[in-house]
Design a protein that fits this description.
This protein has about 300 residues and is α/β, with parallel strands linked by helices. The chain contains 13 helices and eight strands. The protein has a single domain, classed as Alpha/Beta hydrolase fold, catalytic domain (Rossmann fold, 3-Layer(aba) Sandwich).
């Protein structure tokens, strides 16, 4: 009975979070355009695309990571970046408001994810955006580069990721404890998933406790990802080392100083391989730096974009 009451309370929190999100969106509409549209990605999967900011501005496309969505870009989409730029965020298949096909190939075929991103760009009517990928989203960005190249890319910003551009290290030992936690993350039981998500957000918020309303939004973003998507995405290709030679655009790597991944040595190695790349580390930050250190991240994205000739 206690579990039911707790879950009922969670559902109430979700409803409150959604209403708060709508209120924020309505407030943004008063000063600049803001809308979410649906388009068709790879294999006609419905893909949600959120557009805000300056309609005449140079475009920025935000690509979220695993167990995330457009929600995780709120502090960019609703920021001063919108005064200068047209801001676009895509919910990758299986996440947020996008379609969630159940078959494994929908998540292991990099071409389908690339088509999702290409469809988002067409729907938003933008060309040559600065593409910003966070965490697992770095792999999604590289999926796009693999299948569509860089002709329609102004530059790339990778936050807490190197996009798989170094060969992946050997996986951790498959200890009983680790395997048990992986299985929990894939559970179809809603109570188990809620408990696991709480712990997952605890890791994200290890640097500083999130305010209750913000924590609810981040939890909602993760809870929108079904158990089968969590399972299938673990099989998504992660080795993009063959693409390093094809990166002919400026690249900016942004990472928290306490982040577990990527390691500074990996970023340094990638920088030595990509001619026009640079990096910045935010001391003391562990994860989700675009949320905790939003003002500085936004300023650095702005400054970087200004170095790229239209």
């Amino acid at each position: 009975m206690m579990k039911v009451r707790k879950f009922t309370a969670f559902l109430g929190a979700v409803a409150l979070t959604l209403s708060m999100s709508e209120a924020v969106a309505e407030d943004v509409v008063a000063t600049r355009t803001s809308e979410t549209i649906m388009t068709k990605g790879g294999n006609d999967v419905p893909i949600a695309v959120t557009i805000s900011g300056n309609p005449q501005g140079r475009p920025i496309l935000f690509v979220h990571g695993f167990l995330a969505s457009t929600i995780n870009w709120q502090k960019q989409l609703h920021s001063d970046l919108g005064d200068r730029y047209k801001l676009v965020s895509v919910d990758i298949r299986g996440h947020g408001s996008s379609g969630k096909p159940a078959n494994r190939e929908a998540y292991t075929d990099t071409g389908l994810v690339a088509q999702d991103i290409a469809a988002a760009l067409r729907a938003a009517e933008v060309e040559s955006p600065l593409i910003v990928g966070w965490s697992y989203g770095g792999l999604f960005v590289m999926d796009y580069v693999r299948h569509f190249g860089t002709d329609n890319v102004a530059g790339i910003v990778l936050i807490e990721t190197i996009g798989g551009m170094l060969p992946p290290p050997p996986p951790p030992p498959e200890t009983p404890e680790r395997m048990a936690r992986i299985e929990l993350s894939r559970s179809a039981n809603i109570f188990t998933i809620k408990k696991w998500t709480d712990e997952f957000v605890d890791y994200w918020s290890a640097y500083e406790e999130l305010p209750a309303d913000e924590r609810e939004m981040v939890e909602l973003s993760a809870m929108l990802v079904p158990h089968y998507v969590r399972r299938h995405l673990r099989d998504h290709p992660v080795d993009n080392s063959d693409l390093v030679k094809d990166i002919d655009r400026k690249v900016l790597f942004l990472n928290g100083g306490e982040s577990l991944s990527p390691k500074k040595g990996d970023v340094d190695q990638i920088q030595s391989l990509i001619a026009r790349s640079t990096s910045k580390i935010y001391p003391g930050y562990k994860s989700m730096v675009q949320w905790y250190n939003a003002a500085q991240i936004n300023a650095d994205i702005d400054l970087f974009y200004q170095t790229i000739t239209p």
